[in-house]
Design brief:
three-stranded antiparallel beta sheet, alpha+beta
């Protein structure tokens, strides 16, 4: 028996799975991934996911489950951005599991239509560019600058060093592909 999820995912394990799907972390991860790509309500709240897709293989729950069970996923988040460099495809080649504190650090602060570079905001009252970086939910102020390019260099240098430090801190607890991706991570202007 098969049931579709978000109109595209095929749950081909109905009647063959020993636990309730609502209690299964693997199933919930698969369903959330499909929702990011195919749920218009989700995409309305998070437009960065518009255009994201799941590879054909992972549209089948059994195939996603087989892949996920070969990964070190306990207490980690599914990430497609670290290895894919702007691609919008969830697949075995583009995805890894990362600790949440690392995953949220990779989120770009760059918003469409924003005049200042990523990690930089302009403060009208001081006529300066403010640099900050969120770390574990807390904002770290990195300074105020006259020039947006100078501010961005400070942000880029700090964040890339921080991500490399996280890679070292988590080495051995994340897969080698994730470690290499973090070590080689570069912020785009």
């Amino acid at each position: 028996m098969k049931a579709t999820v978000h109109g595209v995912g095929i749950n081909d394990l109905i009647g063959k799975y020993p636990i309730k799907f609502s209690e299964c972390y693997v199933y919930k991860t698969w369903k959330k991934m499909l929702g990011r790509c195919y749920d218009p309500k989700y995409q309305a709240l998070r437009p960065t996911y518009v255009g994201s897709v799941v590879c054909d293989e992972w549209l089948w729950f059994s195939k996603f489950k087989s892949w996920m069970e070969t990964q070190d996923f306990e207490g980690k988040c599914l990430d497609k951005d670290l290895l894919s460099k702007g691609e919008k495809v969830y697949s075995p080649e583009t995805c890894v599991f990362l600790p949440n504190e690392v995953n949220v650090l990779l989120i770009s602060g760059n918003k469409e239509g924003k005049a200042a570079p990523s990690g930089v905001s302009y403060q009208e009252s001081s006529k300066k560019y403010i640099v900050s970086c969120a770390i574990n939910g807390k904002n770290k102020n990195l300074g105020r600058f006259e020039c947006p390019k100078e501010a961005f260099v400070v942000y880029k240098t700090f964040k890339e060093a921080l991500i490399k430090q996280f890679a070292e801190d988590w080495k051995g607890s994340i897969c080698n592909r994730a470690y290499e991706g973090l070590i080689n991570f570069k912020i785009k202007e």
